[in-house]
Design brief:
It is a single chain. The chain is built from no helices and 7 strands. It starts with 6 loop residues before the first strand and ends in an 11-residue tail after the last strand. The strands form 2 sheets. It has a 4-stranded antiparallel β-sheet with strand order 4-5-6-7, with no helix packed on it. The protein has 105 residues and is an all-beta fold. It has one domain (7-94).
Length: 105
């Protein structure tokens, strides 16, 4: 599992129902959900867990009207679009690896 930047999300029946990436801006996971046809809703996924690519942007809007995270994922890198509300807007970073320690905690 080392080096994986996209992890399967599994439902109560053990079926994969999406893929999760760790967002360095929000400090949490964001899920690209699958639909009933086992394809990702609106997102093409290259199937590479180490260097994932999702072919459409993800938009996360929080309960707070001022929280907006809008990004694309390409070859294991996350690009935050200019309409993000956090300081990472306009930046491109490597996606965090699941299980990796990034800040010494």
């Amino acid at each position: 599992m080392s080096g994986e930047r996209a992890m399967p999300a599994v439902d109560e029946d053990g079926e994969i129902n999406g893929w999760v990436i760790l967002c360095p801006a929000c400090q949490c996971g964001h899920k690209f959900e699958n639909d009933a046809n086992d394809s990702v809703n609106g997102w093409g996924f290259n199937g590479n867990k180490a260097l994932p690519t999702f072919t459409a942007p993800m938009l996360i809007e929080g309960d707070d009207e001022h929280h907006r995270c809008h990004f694309t994922i390409d070859a294991g890198r996350i690009t935050f679009l200019e309409d993000c509300s956090h300081p990472f807007r306009g930046m491109t970073l490597d996606l965090p690896v699941f299980g990796a320690k990034t800040d010494g905690h």
